[in-house]
Design brief:
198 residues, alpha/beta, 4-stranded parallel β-sheet, two-stranded antiparallel sheet, 6 strands
Length: 198
């Protein structure tokens, strides 16, 4: 068997949010940690990553509201909410820099899970030639008829610190979406195990 065919056996899972500084970064690391703890034998069989994409509808809404995002959108440090939460799990993301979703990433992926439907539609609009399954995380876990499929409000805007570019959400907002991500992996870990093994 060739080295290339050995490599092809490794599954690639990609989580996507807007800035790749919060939701998708948490999902990437939390799934990795849960698999490490509960199914360590799978660590050699999967690559888990995350990236960001700013939907056109989101940027248009921002423009109407007078919200300006600091360019470039990517290459930034994780948001304080994600960094603190993951540090509490023993995961250090202090050196991480956010990545923009590319067609190349989509071609490499086997499973792409967006944090909300607006993001999923933007990903599908890229028309990348990919065989990846593209969906929404909560719908992947709980089915297409699950109520409230979005993790976080897809059209909600943070305050933006002009000096650091940090996103500042209303109190409690980050806690809500973190709980939703935790629930997905607590109740749906077997789906990922089956996907990786299958």
């Amino acid at each position: 068997m060739s080295v290339k065919s050995e490599t092809r056996k490794k599954k690639n899972i990609l989580f996507v949010c807007c800035g790749n500084r919060e939701r998708s970064l948490i999902a990437e690391n939390l799934l990795g940690r849960k698999l490490e703890m509960k199914c360590p034998q799978l660590s050699e069989k999967v690559d888990i990553g995350s990236a960001g994409i700013f939907p056109k509808a989101y940027l248009e809404q921002a423009r109407k509201l007078g919200v300006t995002f600091v360019a470039p959108y990517f290459g930034k440090s994780p948001n304080i909410y994600a960094a603190k939460y993951l540090a509490g799990k023993g995961i250090d993301v202090s050196l991480y820099h956010s990545r923009e979703l590319t067609k190349r990433m989509l071609r490499k992926a086997d499973l792409v899970l967006a944090m909300d439907r607006v993001l999923k539609n933007e990903i599908l609009g890229l028309q990348a030639k990919t065989s990846a399954e593209i969906g929404v995380l909560k719908e992947y876990i709980f089915g297409p008829d699950c109520p409230h499929p979005n993790i976080g409000d897809p059209m909600k805007f943070p305050e933006i610190d002009p000096k650091t570019g940090a996103w500042i959400w209303p109190e409690g907002y980050a806690d809500d979406y973190i709980l939703e991500i935790e629930r997905c992996f607590s109740q749906g870990l077997e789906k990922f195990v089956d996907f990786i093994e299958g």
